[in-house]
Each structure stands twice: as C-alpha cells, then as structure tokens.
Amino acid sequence: MHGLIRAVRDAGCDDPFVTRLGSYIDLSPADLGSLRSLIECEQAVKKRRDLVVDGYEYCKLSFVKDGFAARYKVLRNGKRQIINVVLPGDVIGLPGSFFERASFSVIALTDMTLQVCALDDFIGLCYRRPKFGVALSWLAVQEATTCAEHVISIGRRTSIERLAHFLLEVHARLTMVGRAAASGFDLPFSQEVMSDALGLSVPHLNRMLAKLRTEGMIAINERHVTFLDIREMELLAHFQPLNLTRAPVPPQEMRAGYRG
Predict the structure, then answer these.
(1) Could you give the count of Cα atoms lying within 13 Å of 184 in the half-sphere of its Cβ?
(2) Is-contact 49 2, C-beta < 8 A?
(3) How far is 55 from 26, CA to CA, in rounded Å?
(4) Cα Rg for the chain, rounded, in angstroms?
(5) Which residues are 72's β-sheet partners?
(6) Each residue of 25-82: pLDDT tens digit?
(7) Could you tell me which of 28, 60, 12, 79 has the C-alpha nearest to residue 249?
(8) What number of other Cβ atoms are within 10 A of residue 242's Cβ?
(9) What pTM did the predictor assign?
(10) Under a CB-based contact definition with an 8 Å cutoff, are residues 12 and 65 in contact?
(11) Are strands 112-118 and 60-66 parallel, antiparallel or unpaired?
C-alpha cells in the first residue's frame, strides 16, 4: 500500500480504481503507466443511460472515476431487482464482460465519468504483469462476498437490519477509495433505487429510514447520511467490514522473472 500511495502522490493522481487496487497490491510507477496505456477513452455518461444491456455482448472494462450506477435484472412481471450498486473505483464489465452475453444490465444512477479499456487488452496486461491478474482475483472475491451479504440480507435480515447494512456497506466501500468521511457520506440514490436493492416497498423503506433517525443512529440532510452512532448501527446490522488480506509477494525464486 505504501508503494502505491507514493506512486500516486508522485503522479498527482486521484484515481479511485488505482486506490482500490492499492488496497491489495503494490503498484510501481511503471505499473501505473502500463495501466493508463490501456485506456481507450475517458467517457462522460449521462444519468439514466444503460451502460450494459442484459442479453447483449459487452467486451469492455470501464473503471468508474466518478458517479454511481446499478447492476440490475428485470423479471417477466416487470419487477426490478438491483443486484449491486456500482461506486467510484468499481469496474463495469465485471462480471458481464466475461460471458458471451451479459447476464445483467447496468444503468447510470448519476452522471458518470468512466475510463474504458478493452477486456482483451486488460487480459494481455495480466499476462505481461501478473500482479494485475492477482488483483483481478481479489476484486472478484470482494464482489462475490458483497453479493453473498446481499443474499443474507434479503433472506434473513429484518427490514431495518437490511437498510442499516446497506448504508454501512456503501460507506465502507466509499471510504476505501477516499470518497467518504469517517462520519458519513453522500448518497445520491432515490428511494426507488434503494427499495429495489433491498427488496422493500418505498413506503416501508421510508418508515425504516424514519426509525433509524428516530432512534438516533443517522441523520439525513439533502442526501448526505451522517452516522450518529455507527457502533450501534453495526451491531444492529450484524455488519463486519470486508477487510481482505493483501496479495502475497511472489516467492523469491519467481522474482527474477517477475515484472513490476
């Protein structure tokens, strides 16, 4: 992590995806240069635009620099389930680009800025600099664990526990990439989005938000969430921060042929 921080500071870089990678692996200036060389364009995306469409090919990886999106599925009855919210530092195309056709859609919830590269180019980088392949595994583990927590929420947590866990999770993920304060964060999601993510009706979600406020756990002002008693929230939600171990340094005998 210290190697990444120094490299990012030296480069004058404020990149949430790079910051997230640095939680798992050390990145040298040469690594950062190789990663930046893959970027085809920096794309501005307007709110409500579909970035990935269920059933269609998507062969890019788009690193979220700014803005928020949602990965979702629409059922035959027209109901929508949001699988996960996409935050700065996340990757659009993980996992959709690894299938012949995407299994879920992704929609921009706010205006966004994306750094786009071809999947094949990123895989080529993984062959040249294996640490990026390792980092991709760590990203996939985090994604799988986050989705597992969502299954637990829908299946076993009560409505208020579900909401509390969601708020804590978003805060923790934003904190990892330097986009949240210790006491709170901006939550630019509509209540409809939150209800589709949590499997709750909008009126019931409203009641649960009011209950968290009444019980002195949170305050909400113009979509900024402030935690008034974050410890009590964690106990309520059965929340455990997702602290992945760092990727191990390659064994000594591999270092001579290991780039980066």
Answers:
(1) 16
(2) no
(3) 36
(4) 19
(5) 82, 105
(6) 999 999 999 999 999 999 999 999 999 999 999 999 999 999 999 999 999 999 999 9
(7) 28
(8) 14
(9) 0.90
(10) no
(11) antiparallel
For 142-175, the pLDDT digits (tens) are 999 999 999 999 999 999 999 999 999 999 999 9
- Three-state SS string over the chain comes to CHHHHHHHHHHCCCCHHHHHHCCCCCCCHHHHHHHHHCCCEEEEECCCCEEECCCCCCCEEEEEEECCEEEEEECCCCCEEEEEEECCCCEECCCHHHCCCCCCEEEECCCEEEEEEEHHHHHHHHHHCHHHHHHHHHHHHHHHHHHHHHHHHHHHCCHHHHHHHHHHHHHHHHHHCCCCECCEEECCCCHHHHHHHHCCCHHHHHHHHHHHHHCCCEEEECCEEEECCHHHHHHHHCCCCCCCCCCCCCCHHHHCCCCC
Q: Copy the structure tokens of residue 215.
A: 């019980």
Tokens of 9: 């500071």
Question: Which residue type occupies 177?
Answer: V
Q: Which of 17-21, 85-89, 183-187, 253-257 bottoms out in mean pLDDT, i.e. has the lowest?
A: 253-257
Nearest Cα to Cα of residue 228 among 193, 177, 182, 259: 182
Q: Is the pLDDT of residue 198 over 50?
A: yes
Provide the token pair at 45.
């995306």
Q: How many Å apart are CA 132 and CA 24, to the nearest integer? A: 10
- Residue 2: which pLDDT band, with cuts at 50, 70 and 90? very low
Confidence band for 257, pLDDT divided at 50, 70 and 90: low
Find tokens 């986050």 and name the residue. Answer: 146
Region 228-232: mean pLDDT is: 96
How far apart are alpha carbons 251 and 171 in whole angstroms?
35
Cβ neighbors of 188 (< 8 A, separation 6 or more) are 68, 109, 110, 223
